[in-house]
Amino acid sequence: QVQLAESGGGSMQAGGSLRLSCTASLYSLSSYAIGWFRQAPGKEREFVAAISWSGQSTHYADSVKGRFTISRDNRKNTVHLQMNSLKPGDSAVYYCAARQQYDGYWYGETYWYNYWGQGTHVTISA
Residue 83 forms beta bridges with which residues? Predict the structure, then answer.
């Protein structure tokens, strides 16, 4: 089985930056698509960003577009989510998810991914 571990969460003032990382217990992450999702208390889990296995295709939720950047380093089995210009509305538990990709992928759908991390907390204060 694949294990995912998120890191980099914490507390930050609005306007600041955080860099989240997702590391997989795999020999190689190169064939896996990776998505980031977040869930705030009392709210549904929502899509944040995703990256295809090749890194050629990235997708972002409208709420984070222009502020967040997803990237991957397959040699280190790690995907990063650089979060800039943070807002209080970004506060949530952030999860990374993975699934082996062959052709297309449903990047924004939680049901498509079959591996999930435990989440890392992000708290943004005004």
Answer: 18, 68
Q: Please count the other Cβ atoms lying within 10 Å of the Cβ belonging to residue 98.
A: 24
CA pair distance 117, 97, nearest whole angstrom: 6
pLDDT by position in tens, the chain (length 126) = 789 999 999 999 999 999 999 999 877 677 899 999 999 999 999 999 999 988 889 999 999 999 999 999 878 889 999 999 999 999 999 999 999 988 878 999 999 999 999 999 999 999
CA–CA dist 21, 30 (Å, integer): 16
Give the span between the Cα atoms of 48 and 36, in whole angstroms.
Answer: 5
